[in-house]
Every structure is written in structure tokens, then in C-alpha cells.
Fold this protein.
Amino acid sequence: MRTLAAIASLAMLSTACTERPQAENLLPPSEYVTTLMGTQSDYALSTGNTYPAIALPWGMNFWTPQTGKMGDGWTYTYGAHTLRGLKQTHQPSPWINDYGQFSVMPVRGNDKLDEESRQSWFSHQSETAKPYYYSVYLADHDIKAEVAPTERAAIMRFTFPESGESGVVIDAFDRGSAIEVIDDRTIAGYTTRNSGGVPENFRNYFVMTFDKPFSGIELTDAPASYKPGSKVLYPEGGKSVEGDHAMAKVHFTTARGEQVNVRIASSFISREQAFQNLKELGDMDFEGVKEQARKRWDEVLGAIEVEGGSIDQYRTFYSCLYRSVLFPRKFYEVTADGQVVHYSPYNGEVLPGYMYTDTGFWDTFRSLFPLLNLVYPSVNAEIQAGLANTYRESGFLPEWASPGHRGCMVGNNSASVVSDAILKGVTPEEDVETLYEAMASGTDKVHPTVSSTGRLGHEYYNTLGYIPYNVGINENVARSLEYAYDDWCIAQVAAKLGRPAEEQQKWLTRAQNYRNLFDPETRLMRGRNEDGTFQSPFSPYKWGDAYTEGNAWHYTWSVFHDVEGLASLMGGREAFATMLDSVFVVPPIYDDSYYGARIHEITEMQVANMGNYAHGNQPAQHMIYLYNYAGQPWKAQWWAREVMDRLYMARPDGYCGDEDNGQTSAWYVFSALGFYPVCPGSDEYILGSPLFRRATIHLENGAEIEIDAPENSSEKRYVGKMAIDGKVSERPFLSYSTLLEGAKVRFEMEPEK
């Protein structure tokens, strides 16, 4: 490895050349997006575990082609050969699964109804998948199906062959649903299917209007025993079905090339509100909705412009940015008189104010929410208002929400998400005190039915300073380390609000609890028993057990708020760097005895060929940037480029693990810009290696961040000098406060020496 001097010793960068080269003639950013990135995944190996979301940024409803069977978390997989429908989905991940889903499928043939009989072969060669538009040729039906979205509605267009047996199947799914024929062009219904986290009165109401009258209608609540074509009704009004599994099929006679348009909307509040949401489509035809959606995507993605890269880099960057602005999704609606309201997934009431959902903070506190705070703060302001409402309605901040509290992952990372927004001035002023109260109260309680919400093991943590290994609480090291960081986050807000000194000190003292789990013998974080002894036997390669989806090599670095303190425990900066080196040097061996079988995260670490570094899962994703604290920034630059170049690509197998609601994508977005938020809640970003020669971030306040690296290339991945507004930085850090005012950041890139 080269012997580049630490940035602190860099000479003054010349400012003589301040003019930016003329911009490239690039496509609109949405045209670079590959929505199929990450879809070549399954239970055993995740290359993203994504699906092609046809939606607007943060939209309430997504649509996706459905290849999997009803209820399958892998709703669309790239290797599948048949489609079963175009599905409205709210699924944040296959592991959490879906809720409020229903599907629409155009068909030819009176015998086509249930998901097996109606499925059709398709090819990716006749598929167009963009954020704002999807089309596919359904070979078995000789039908082209298209969809374009708004936030709560969509329009579909079906191009039929000449047939007296054309139709559209509406599948409201099982576990409780209903469909009603309103008139000869209108269908309404609801679906209750969910995967948890909803009150008893949960329903997703849907409405759809066709621009061609039905020639016949079929309804059933038992498709498994229903013979298609046996109960054809005609639109005389008042026709409905309600039961376990409601389905409808509307019939047409069509000429070849005839197009039928369907306007669809849904609501978690009521049928009436679903009809109100349908008005999002206005008087626009299909092409108008499509164009409006495209413009919205280009507006949101265009907040960051990159230049001076390859076509593959543009595709990967904007595909990752697309994933970064999908979740959390809106869960609020707008009434006829313009009031913002939401159905509460916490108490079942319809209440005023914002609500967002479908995200897990264990993943997304690391870089997704810092990205929102920097580039899209107005959106996060609404999210924070929604979090305040969540606390008011449930007594807790969420840790995993879909749509309500879900039992998944560990930690109390809502404290990071909330504190970072408050400290950066994003949170609405009227919600700050409520959110501080919510963070503080969550430190000494746990949700009565969802143990991942609040702090499981708080009784031990608040007295001993850690959760013991031997008291029956799994993943105890991971929980303890994350609680310590979360306490530091709370301390920062307490200081900002001028809380009493003893209150601030309580959080600051607890923030040092990470020290209680550091084993000086191994220089790793290790489980500790209630009597103070360390767990024995101990293997740093054992996944799970004391850790969450990782091992000691991964979790030891989860001291985001006091890296210098961690380095001191390890024996200083050199020893710290050596331990970081070791993660990449030790072979990808593992111990899966805790799980009883290899989990997909283990496989993803193995196949990456980066030793025991597991970028495909979140605990290790910040680790690369810690080399800056050790005075070896060139190693951070080396590994950041290696990960970007090798583990990300805009293709179906383009991720190196679960994409996880924008987190893994946001890592790439930050890293491609050349800096990363190691410690949300602080003012600092840590230097990496910019991927492009030029980048411009258009901030919502009207300022711009200009990032220039004119000599950048694959051979020149090292930062020789970095200047901010013409002044050489003495440290490998950028501050949020500086960037927020608008800044010119210039990198002088160098090859390995």
C-alpha cells in the first residue's frame, strides 16, 4: 500500500483553477435508473432482495409485477418466467413481507381466474422497468400491460388482442377481503391481508374505474372451489362478495390493438377517501400521468448531479439514489378540504397529521436518514412529525415499522434518527420537546408485545452498564453497544435543549458503557456474564449469539460516537489500524452454530472475497472509514473504491446483500460523493474517495455543494489534497454546517505511489 501522508500534513492546494469544466450532455437522471437492480435474489443468497417499484418518491402506494405466489415475500424475482399480476404493494422487505396488497391482471380466456390459471410467460426482453413506468408483454394472453403511478393512485393501460374472451382479474387476496360492483365501469373493495403490525380494524380500501363498460362480471369469495365462467353476472348494480378471498373478473369483447385504461386508487381510511385519492390522476390520460411521474423523479433524483463518470457508474449511482428515496413511505392522506390525516396503525383511529412507515432504523440510521437530512430535509421534517405522532399514539418510537410496530432487529436506534434531525435543525419546532421525551422514556421500558421496540434488557443495562451474556437475552453485545451510542445521541439533544446538567451527565456516562464489553485480551467486544466475567468459550467468528447478524469482527467497531476512545482501548492508533487490517486479512471463516445453519449474510461475506468484512450487512458498513481516525486515510480510500467498484452494479445481481430500505444504497451515494456520516448526531462526515470528477448537490435552501476531482480515475483513487472553499483541510473531515451554507470541495487525486 502507498505511503501517502496524512491529510493533516498536506500542503496548500492551489486555487488558481476554480472554473468547472463544461457539463456533459447527460440524460435525465431517471433514465439511468435500473429498477431491476437487486431482484436476482432468493432466500439463500441476497443480491438486494428488491423488487421493481413503480411509484413516486416516498409514495404511499407502490406497484410491482408479481412473479411469486400470493403471500410470498419474494414478490418478484428476476429468474422467474411467469407473471401473476400487477400488484399494489407496501412491502419493505421479503423478511417483513407485505400488507394492504391486491393485484390486477389482464387476461384472455374465460377459464383464466386464479393465480395459477391466469399467470403468463414473459421475457425481460419485452419488459420496460422504470421508476415512473412499467410495461410487459404477457405472452400467453397476447396483451401488453402498462402502469404509471401517482402517490396514492395509478393508471393502467392494457392493449388487447381481438377476442371475445378478454378480461381483467382483480384479486383482493385471502385472509379477509371484499369486492363490489358499483356500476358497469367501477369496482370497489378492500383487503385486510397483512403480516402483522396492524389493529383489528385494518383495511386497505381500493377503487378502480374502467374506460370501457363491462360485458360481464364474475365474483367469488372461494376461488379454489370456483369454476371460472359459471356465475357470470351483468352490471345491474348491487353485486358484491365478501369473505376469505374475494376475486372479480370483468369481461370485454375487444378488437385487436384496443386499449382499455383503468384508474386505480386506495386508502387506509375509507372507500370515500379512496375515491378522493383517485382525483390525484385528474383529467390526465396515461401518457400525462407517466410524464408527470417522470418529471417528479427527475426533480428528486436531480438534487444530486454527477458528471465525469462511466455509463455504468451513472446507472449504479442513480439506481442507488432511487432506492434511497422510496422508504420510508407516506402513510398519510389528504382530505377533500386539504387536511392531512392518517389511519393510525398503532391505535386504529383516523387522526390529523403526518405518518410515514415501512423502515427499520437498525439499518437506516447509518446513512439513509443522514442523506435525507442533507439533501431532502423537508421530507424528513414530515417523517419526524410522524414519529412524534407515533409516540403520542403508541407510547413508543418505532424501531421497525410496517405499518405499525414490528418485532425485528435490536437496538434503540430511533434515538439516532430523531437526534440527528433535531441537531441539524430539520425537526419541526413544535415536535422537538415531544421527541426528546419519547427518546428519554424509551430507555427504561420495552413494548409489551413487540420486544424490539423500546429497550429489551434495560434493567440490566441501566444498572450494570451492559446486558449480561447469561441472562437469557440474545444478541446482548449488539444491544449494549447500540444503547451506548443511542445514549450519546440523547445527550447531544439534552445539551441543545439546555436540560439540567445531571440529566445530560446521565446520558454521557451511559454513552461510555461500550467499555464494559471490551476484552483487552482479544481486543474485541465480547459477551460478559452478570458476575463480570467474560463469556467462555469465545470465538470471534461465531455469528449471532451475542451479536446481531454478524460476529465480533463486525460489531467491535460499533462505537460511532467515540472512535478515539475505542482506539485507546486497543492500544492506540497503530494497534487500532492493525485490528482494522485484520478484518480484511482473516479468511472468511465462520461459526453458524447459533443459527443451526448458514444464513444468507454469511454466504454474502464469503463470496465477496474481502476476508471477514461483511459489507452486505449493516454493522460493518462504516468500518472502512474508521481508518481516518487512525491517521491512515488512504486505506479508507482504497477500500471505499474497492467496495463501490466490486460490490455494486446496476444489474439484477447488483448488491452484495439486502438493500434494506435505502441504507445500502445510501452508503453508495455518500461514498460516491467522497464522504460518509460515520456518526449520525454529530456534525461531521468522514473523507473517502469520490467516484466522479464532478458532483453538485442542490440543497433545498438554495445553496449548492460543488465537489470537484478533475483528475479522478480508476487509477487515481487516492486523495492527495482536499480544499474547502479554496482552503486546504487540515483534517479528513467535512462538517454539515459548512456544507449547508454551500461549499466548493476540491479533491486532488493521485495514483498509488
Q: What stands out?
A: Residues 79 and 508 are 51 Å apart (CA to CA). The domain at 52-299 is CATH 2.70.98.10 (Beta-galactosidase; Chain A, domain 5). Confidence is low (pLDDT under 50) at residues 1-18. The radius of gyration is 27 Å.
